[in-house]
Design brief:
By secondary structure, the chain is an alpha+beta fold. The chain has 11 helices and 12 strands. The protein has 2 domains: 218 residues, no CATH class; 137 residues, no CATH class. The strands form 3 sheets. Strands 5-6-2-1-8-9 form a 6-stranded mixed β-sheet. The chain is globular and about 70 Å long.
């Protein structure tokens, strides 16, 4: 029964991962003052093309003329998926300038708008639903500026609404906020989860004469997992800090493609083992790459200048907390099931093959900046 429960949970976990293609984010910045909010919303042209069909001649290239010609449609579509409330009163959104900007992962349409709330603002509520019906992995990275305070949040299908108290940020509240964002990032980062699972699958087994045998004692298994998790933590904490502080800067497309490649290699090593010992070295090497991915999210969220170190520390601790929760849930159950043939055949072998296939799709889509599968029909 325990083995069946683990298998069922893994199937549920894999299901949303199959829908994940290249990371889809938009960047929503709100500047609140008095009764008014000035907004800037950066939405990827590839996402708007997916939703509205901006490429009118279907030649695979979106020109400024095509983008400009659909200005009204883009504003109508975007603003219909955003609702801002000041206190208990809905704010009226008015479209403004329409621009194009370039992010590290491609061209973005920039929508400038204002929100008139009719009363002095003490808090605002943001309801966000952009692209949720087309891409269940889409996220809106929200940044709210009020005086010298900066508030951030990640909006997604599971958390589409955010209440922001417009007050000067306190250190305790900021720490808790970035801690939560770190936890949610690792729990919603399916590529990071699959990489971690790929390393954990064989942790309760021993490679002998080209076959996997169950480990006899839990203590050596736990010690090996501690080394793997510690190496991964040290590595991604290092690059997370360096990249967030601007010491390292790489295009996010390269980073995300490398993360997908790391998942492929880690899972493939379970099927055709080239490295069966000192997996902590593998975790450390690939952890350096994953740290750059964490940093991209943290930079997009924005760090308060007056609490830079505190926010960085909190986000990193959040990532570790989320990671340890996954390990703590998986390892004891895996150790109890390690003697079952299904664990080795279905989870280690078949599970690793499935991870390889999923990660190969990610790698292709991220490297080529394309989408191989249209998942919209699943939500019609």
């Amino acid at each position: 029964m325990l083995f069946r429960l683990i298998l069922y949970l893994l199937i549920l976990a894999y299901t949303p991962m199959l829908h994940a293609h290249k990371a889809s984010d938009s960047y929503l910045t709100l500047q609140a003052a008095g009764e008014r909010i000035d907004g800037r919303w950066d939405i990827a042209l590839r996402d708007l093309d997916y939703a509205l069909g901006l490429d009118g001649d279907d030649n695979g290239e979106i020109t400024w003329g095509e983008v400009r010609g659909r200005r009204a449609a883009v504003f109508d579509y975007a603003l219909s998926h955003l609702h801002i409330t000041g206190g208990k009163q809905a704010c009226a959104l008015q479209p403004g300038d329409y621009l194009i900007d370039t992010h590290t992962d491609g061209a973005y349409s920039v929508l400038m708008f204002t929100a008139a709330c009719g009363a002095a603002l003490s808090n605002i509520t943001v309801d966000y639903s952009l692209l949720f019906d087309l891409d269940p992995q889409h996220r809106g990275l929200l940044r709210v500026e009020y005086g010298q305070a900066t508030h951030t949040a990640v909006l997604g299908p599971a958390h589409p609404r955010q209440l922001i108290e417009l007050a000067e940020a306190r250190s305790g509240a900021a720490f808790w906020q970035y801690l939560q964002e770190g936890v949610w990032h690792i729990w919603l980062g399916y590529d990071h989860i699959l990489f971690l699972l790929s390393l954990l699958f064989p942790a309760v087994l021993i490679r002998h004469n080209r076959i996997w045998l169950p480990a006899e004692q839990f203590r050596p298994v736990l010690f090996e997992v501690v080394k793997i998790v510690t190496a991964f933590t040290v590595a991604h904490s290092l690059t997370l800090s360096l990249a967030t502080l601007g010491v390292i800067a790489l295009p996010s497309r390269w980073v995300e493609s490398a993360i997908a490649a790391s998942v492929v290699l880690a899972a493939l090593n379970n099927v055709y083992p080239l490295i069966s010992k000192r997996l902590w070295l593998v975790a450390f090497g690939f952890g350096l790459i994953h740290g750059l991915g964490f940093a991209n999210v943290l930079k997009d969220l924005g760090l308060p200048n007056n609490m830079l170190v505190l926010a960085l520390l909190a986000f990193n601790l959040g990532v570790e907390t989320g990671q340890l929760a996954i390990v703590s849930a998986f390892l004891p159950a895996a150790f109890l099931c390690r003697r079952n043939w299904g664990y080795r055949r279905l989870l280690v072998d078949a599970g690793s093959v499935l991870i390889v296939l999923i990660a190969l799709v990610w790698l292709t889509e991220r490297a080529m900046n394309t989408q191989l599968v249209d998942w919209a029909f699943l939500f019609e």
